[in-house]
Design a protein that fits this description.
313 residues, alpha/beta, TIM Barrel, 8-stranded parallel β-sheet
Amino acid sequence: MGDQVADVGFGTWGMGGWSGSNDEASRAALRRGLELGCNFLDTARAYGNGHSEKLIRDALADWTRAKPFIATKVPPKNGKWPARANYPLEDVFPADYIRWCTERSLKNLGVPCIDLQQFHVWTDAWAEDDRWQRAVADLKSEGLIRGVGISINRWEPANAIRALQTGLIDAVQVVYNIFDQAPEDELFPICQELGVAVIARVPFDEGSLTGTMTVDDTWPPEDWRNLYFTPENLRATLDRVARMQDDVPAGMDLPELALRFILHHPAVCTVIPGMRTERHVERNLAVSDGRPFPAGLLAAMRRHRWDRTTVIP
């Protein structure tokens, strides 16, 4: 991947299943992103049961310029998020299921080959198991996928290092933002050593680092954010966001700061903010201008590191 993809990619979870999404606006946002040079689209079969994959297919239907790099994911067969070390591989990613999901995603996306097929959950208890290794090797040899990746469980950035050491993993997707800086400790150095691409996800901490959330925010019962932003966690998070506001430089807002912080690290190949409107696309992609992150500002951001350990999807 590396230099092949833009600094700011396109996350599509929100358009696939979050409340408030609109298909017409999502397709327009995808097209605007493509027009502005966003050439990395990240999706998953679990996002609306393939809905975001189909939205990408629609957006590319009459696209005549260079095709973007498309990454998708195989959901856990047992439907449990995140993966636990005691889950048998055959319950989560049996070989025939990996193939079936890949074939479904190929159909949803309308492409002959997936650039990056990722495991949507992971535990390094499976790292040396040759069953998943043979499954992805077969898909590669048949030209159905080009690369293999792992979407690492939230707040467990070291829980993929053994898999990386097999030499079979091309990319990792990890939660990395101003709060969640732990990937810098162990994961990023290994990725740089082994030449594994890093995709930074959740750049805005599911919305808190946009600076627009309040303690009164609510979501429909089925919306995933109810699990993440429990009342206690929402208050604690917004207290931290308020303290961070003092460090936002003049002429920059919090979302821009959040993205620029992520892109400062040389291990990061691309960051994938969720975007559902053309306005968000234009604002986020503007950050990809090559400006260096000031050393003094980086030191200030270090004070906002928040090491969380309760694992949720």
